[in-house]
Amino acid sequence: MIAIIDYGMGNLRSVQKAVEHVGFPAAVTSDPREVARAKKVIFPGVGAFGDAMAELEKRGLTAPILESIRSGKPFLGICLGLQLLFESSQENPGVRGFGVFKGAVEKFAGDFKIPHMGWNQIRIRNKACPILKDIADGTYLYFVHSYYVAPRDTAIAACTTDYGNDFVSMVWKDNIYATQFHPEKSQENGLKILRNFCRL
Length: 200
Hints:
The chain is built from 6 helices and 13 strands.
């Protein structure tokens, strides 16, 4: 079973439907025991960094998420689920993220529309990433966000995307995969990414 973490913030049903569409059972859950038992974990999210961390703490999900990551089971963060893996965010200064990756979440700045919303291209920086199998460089995927991650270790960047400047749109290290784009909203190519993850 694939656990989709429910902390009250995220397009959970669409993620569940997309996973089931590619042929895998998935359960939306806020039960720490189900997260611990799951063979794979998906951590989606939308909303504010600080509110999300508070809700995760309130529901007792912080420790199970970290344990899932440390256990080596495949783990996929989506949108806010990517950003929360970092140490901090300009959105809510003083709020600590999970700190799985060193670095911060920064706000887009410049003379262009914020949030970054709609279809944009990914540039694949690490072709060895297993969940990018059969995804072409330059593929368009769907984004909705006002903040982006700035990893201290640039080697974890699996993809970048240009929006004013290049930003990291996907990270990968060991069993951890996390995307700024929404695979569940990205039609056939997004479903390919989810299928690749579910097959790991």
